[in-house]
């Protein structure tokens, strides 16, 4: 009967002292991009994989996440930002709140698609079918979309406080 070989014993998991109320939060490692859990109240977190030390955002800062459209890296940013620049590939990603996007089923494969209010059509990434968006939706949200687009394009990237370049 074969016996599995283990040349080195598995190291014990590092001990993280629990916070006063036992709550944990998460952030992305600035070195290897792994998702790290840490006790609430910590000021920095050392990654067990790459030993990079990542600063924890100030308490009360509400964070959100998105996947970069250029390199598919997980980005974390301060909720409310209109755009987030990826510090790996420098792609500027639009960070939309739930009330700035809508959903429609693909006209061909029925995949649920998400699009920005005001769009006239949306292309399915699965089957490449272009689904037209109803005119009534566009009329209802046209003013909001115009205002949102003006805000996004006027924003100077260097002045955007919500860009977190320390994630790569």
From TrEMBL:
InterPro entries with a match to the protein in the record: LSD1-like (IPR040319), Multihaem_cyt_sf (IPR036280), Znf_LSD1 (IPR005735)
UniProt key word Nucleus: yes
Main location: nucleus
Keyword field: Nucleus
GO CC entries: nucleus
One Pfam family matching this protein: zf-LSD1
Ranges of residues in domain Zinc finger LSD1-type: 29-53, 68-92, 106-130
Name the record gives this protein: Zinc finger LSD1-type domain-containing protein
Organism of origin: Arachis hypogaea (Peanut)
